[in-house]
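Thread: quick sanity check before group meeting

JM: Hey all, I'm pulling together slides for Thursday and realized we never actually wrote out the predicted structure for the chain we discussed last week. Dropping the sequence here so it's in one place. If anyone has concerns about the input, flag it before I start.
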Amino acid sequence: MHLGNLIAKLADERSTAETMAALGDIVLFAGVVEAAESYRESAGEYVAATVSRFAELAGDEAWLQLMSTIEAAADPGTAALQLIVRWGLAEDRRHRDDDPFRAAAGMPRNP
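JM (edit): ok, ran it. Output follows.
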């Protein structure tokens, strides 16, 4: 499926669950749900925002990895979405770990 079609489906929560389930990675979906809840967003809003953040903030290495993934994949849209979501979750985890306010409040680095 085309990445644009996948992103368009994220507006509807039922479609988001179906789209994420189609990726075949329950751990990835659980990570999306957890991250979305931490931002008080729906899973679809989180994934759509992650795609937008990737387009705006990803470095050359991430883009190269995306291009290589798309080129090698049988389903480029699905493969791209998986890579982008994993990138977003990793970025969020890194920023959460580096949050000085968490440390000052005595909160764990990575809940």
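AS: nice. Confidence is low (pLDDT under 50) at residues 107-111. The CA atoms of residues 55 and 63 lie 9 Å apart.
JM: adding both to the slides.
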